[in-house]
Amino acid sequence: MKVAVMQPYFYPYGGYFRLIAAVDLFILFDCVQFPRRGRVHRTEVPDGAGGRRWLTLPLAKQPQTTRIDHLAFAPGARGEFDARLAGVPALCGSPPQGVDGIAAALGGPMDDPAGFVIANIAATARALGIATPFARSSDFTIGEEVRQAERIAAIAVQAGATTYVNASGGRGLYEADFFAGRGLALEFMAPYDGPFFTLLADLWTHPLEAIAADAARAVTEPA
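Now predict its structure.
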């Protein structure tokens, strides 16, 4: 069984969904410290001048050591986020055919940020025809002292994986021998060569079939 373990990203680039499509179980790595400069809570959208800007979820101020699954929204987050969405011209108007479920996820309950982000990932996967099931790493029993690659391997083993698949950028981080020593083969995705880097806006402005076809181009390579 092929498993990927990745942090939940808010509308990441198209390669993230290729990775989801390439595995038998996709585990959202939410049991680690929230990376404030990462993409858990934000996505890039067109800025109207040919560039990009960040669309960010309104989070409450919390300690730097806060885990992803312990994040909280700021008071009034729903209204604030709706105003931020309204400021993205590409998202104005009714959602195109096939994107209704994604629009519903964007407008869904904002109880906790990790759950909200994961709900939007799942809605996007469904819209793209990806049937891979999801799990959250915080639901696995892994001691806090187990960290970094060891933690990922432990989660994959506990999930019953035989192969761990990582994004192409992980080639400089993970070694096949390390995973082999834990009973896991290691594979990487081929580098992303698609056009979808502002995925949220792309879902409104490109044919859904084109984005689904891009996600289906899920090619893995041995370590």
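The chain has one domain: 2-222.
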